[in-house]
Design brief:
By secondary structure, this protein is an alpha+beta fold. 33% of the residues lie in helices and 27% in strands. The chain has one domain.
């Protein structure tokens, strides 16, 4: 299972509507989202010292990376992690455990664990760097297609300082031109960074396996309240347990 940490409002919204939200990764909490891995890739491309070409360019991603939007739903592989309770549990924290294989079956997007840091960028980007040395007479078109392949690779990596999060992601990539048709329809939620675009990911009842009650006051009463809510929503097979971390607010 992988776990989505949320507040009481998030818990109610997720289980009553049976949906998760995948947010535009440009507006996630990590200010270096995509930029960290992109800068490493660009530095490796510069090391190639390719000669200039008069009749075209090279098969390398670059200017068209922003021709695509990446939407991400975030999870954690740990069900009872203090740093997550501190970050997401200020208003009655909860961790919702989802069956990874059931989520994959929804075919919403790719599911994978986040890699923290890139120890050897030339090795990580070996395939992309080999393409970057191949000339092409249509660099603009090639750039678009190569960017489409590269962007998910960038989104799999975060800065090493975030390693404690033990994050997993569901990622969906959409070309910018497809957003104009609003298929799939983009919605917006308020945040400190302004209106955040997101996509709705509906899930089936068997995807939700567990709810962990975060540390704090009235944990047993909260456990009972969650049990009543899940039973009324025909989710009575979901396991409920209380965090073992003695964290006071």
């Amino acid at each position: 299972m992988i776990y989505h940490y949320t507040t009481i409002s998030g818990l109610i919204g997720i289980v009553t509507r049976r949906e998760l939200w995948a947010s535009d990764c440009q507006f996630l909490n990590d200010g270096t989202e995509l930029k960290y891995a992109r800068d490493l890739f660009s530095a490796e491309v510069e090391k190639l010292n390719r000669p200039s070409l008069d009749d075209g360019g090279y098969m390398v991603a670059g200017s068209h990376l922003y021709s695509f939007r990446v939407f991400i739903a975030c999870f954690c592989e740990e069900s009872d992690l203090l740093s997550q309770w501190r970050g997401y549990g200020a208003d009655q924290g909860y961790a919702l455990g989802f069956d990874t294989e059931k989520l994959k079956a929804l075919d919403f997007g790719d599911i994978y664990p986040v890699q923290y840091g890139i120890a050897n960028p030339s090795e990580y980007f070996a395939k992309e760097l080999s393409w970057a040395t191949e000339p092409t007479a249509h660099p603009g078109n090639v750039d678009w297609f190569e960017s489409q392949k590269l962007l998910p690779r960038l989104a799999r990596v975060k800065h090493l300082s975030f390693a404690e999060e033990r994050e997993w992601r569901i990622l969906r990539q959409i070309p910018e031109f497809a957003l104009k048709d609003q298929r799939p329809k983009i919605q917006y939620r308020p945040s400190s960074m302004g209106p955040i675009p997101y996509l709705v990911m509906s899930f089936t009842p068997d995807c939700l396996r567990e709810v962990v009650i975060g540390p704090g006051s009235h944990t047993e009463t909260r456990e009972n309240a969650v049990q009543v809510m899940l039973r009324n929503l025909d989710l009575q097979n979901v396991n409920i347990r209380i965090s073992k971390i003695p964290f006071r607010r």
